[in-house]
Amino acid sequence: MQTYEVRVPHTRSYEDPISVKKGDRVFLSGEMDDWDGHIWLWAKASDGRQGWLPSAYFEQWTDWQSCDFSMNTLELTCQIGSVLTATDEKFGWLLCHSGQGDINYDEKGWVPKRCLTLLGQ
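RESULT FIELD:
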């Protein structure tokens, strides 16, 4: 785990974003976005939720595909000066926990790495 300070505020893009589990099927629309050198694909889950998923997890980038991974894409809204603990990093994003308390109870979500500065270096 590493500790970061927010240097650029970030607001959650979607209140109920796509979340997938290994074995789920998603529809990939073919729409792509380059996020800091990582290609993301617009996907729709069988429950109707939509959002961006990393292209690195798919062999084909259109039509119905099976997921061989699990991922919750919920983002964390954070303000300048907030201190966050990161527990995972994927494709230009960090999975962060807010506050200094027990990370099992803090709010968590993904934050763009470019919005954060690593503390203690």
